[in-house]
Design a protein that fits this description.
By secondary structure, the chain is α+β, with helices and mostly antiparallel strands. Helices cover 51% and strands 13% of the residues. It has helices at 3-15, 40-51, 61-69, 71-79, 117-135, 145-153, 163-180, 196-200, 203-220; strands spanning 54-56, 83-88, 93-98, 141-144, 183-187, 190-193.
Length: 221
């Protein structure tokens, strides 16, 4: 074999193989057989977005930073599942929406978790207070559980005399909304209403519910 032929063979051999990658540069498996490409903290944010209704910057500052730093890849992963990611920077909240299309066969992954009667009535009151306080120039809005109960109870059927049960419904509604981040308990029985209430209940929807409540009260008066 000539020297030229030997050089050609060497070049071809080198081109036919991939240079070995140092072991320390290999992606670290998080569990046996792991083929994922996301780092552990990014995966946790993705899971939280899928599991929970909202991701709040105020309650989860570290995860919020991770989301913003990796928003494009997280959004891409969710799009693979026909789920839209909404990141509201002004209010510091991220949430998901089921993609629906009349032109595409989209399998529905997310269930609609509607609010029950008590939760809806509490929401109406919270949204009303939040809108009123913001309209008067206040930077935050707060409610006391006793005042909230008294107001919400006026929306219930006056013929229903089981006050204890109704109060329990209202307390349960407050607990769920606090868990979701719409309320933050600053002291015993004293809650701050978060801007998330605007996401859950738009101005248009609030007006519709308020009108329905007025008509209902007039009918039972």
């Amino acid at each position: 074999m000539s020297e030229l032929e030997h050089d050609d063979w060497s070049t071809g051999a080198a081109a036919g193989f991939i240079d070995p990658v140092p072991m320390e540069d290999d992606p670290t498996e998080l569990f046996p057989g792991d083929t994922g490409t996301l780092e552990a903290d990014v995966r946790r944010v993705l899971v939280q977005l899928l599991r929970r209704k909202f991701l709040l910057a105020e309650k989860n500052p570290a995860q919020w930073r991770t989301l913003l730093e990796n928003q494009q890849i997280i959004e891409s992963r969710m799009h693979d599942l026909f789920i839209r990611l909404v990141v509201d920077h002004e209010r510091g909240v991220a949430y998901k929406q089921q993609v629906r299309s009349s032109e595409l066969d989209v399998p529905i992954l997310l269930r609609d978790e509607s609010y029950n009667r008590a939760e809806t009535l509490v929401l109406v009151h919270l949204r009303t207070v939040f809108q009123r306080e913001r309209g008067s120039g206040e930077t935050s809005a707060r409610v006391d559980i006793e005042e909230l109960e008294q107001t919400v109870l006026t929306y219930f059927d006056p013929e229903d005399h089981n006050l204890a049960r109704t109060q329990q419904e209202v307390r349960g509604a407050v607990q769920r909304l606090a868990t979701e981040g719409l309320l933050v308990e600053e002291s015993a029985g004293r809650y701050r209403i978060t801007p998330l209430v605007e996401v859950v209940l738009s101005t248009e929807k609030l007006a519709e519910l308020q009108q329905w409540l007025r008509e209902r009260n007039e009918a039972t008066a």
